[in-house]
Design a protein that fits this description.
Number of domains: 1
Structural class: alpha+beta
Strand content: 15-25%
Distance between the termini: 53 Å
Shape: globular
Order of helices and strands: EEEHEHH
Radius of gyration: 15 Å
Length: 108
């Protein structure tokens, strides 16, 4: 089982993503969060066939669910879910991912 915690940012919600593959390499996904929108996503993607997460963005079931359920297009949760899936399937190493804001100093 692979677990990833996504700290979503300004909304204050975090999501514990748990992904487990079965003997056929299909995926069982759970999303533990207080965010109602992500909870709705969890209903859509609780089970995915092995190849489904590798679809392009417009056809990817994770991003399709995000498009239907999330109001904030920049939410990092879908990406975190896909990273967890990649690690669980052994196609990606478990390395941290981050977005860092750099404040530009104003001249004055």
């Amino acid at each position: 089982m692979t677990r990833v915690t996504v700290q979503s940012g300004i909304c204050g919600f975090s999501v514990l993503v748990s992904v487990e593959r079965d003997k056929d390499r299909n995926l069982h996904i759970s999303l533990d969060t207080e965010c109602d929108m992500v909870k709705k996503m969890a209903e859509d993607i609780s089970f995915l066939e092995f190849r489904a997460p590798f679809a392009t963005i417009l056809h990817n079931p994770v991003y399709r669910s995000a498009s239907k359920n999330l109001k904030h297009a920049a939410c990092p949760v879908p990406s975190g879910i896909l990273k967890a899936i990649e690690v669980e399937l052994g196609v990606c190493l478990p390395r941290p991912v981050s977005i860092t804001f750099e404040k530009k100093e104003e001249k004055g």
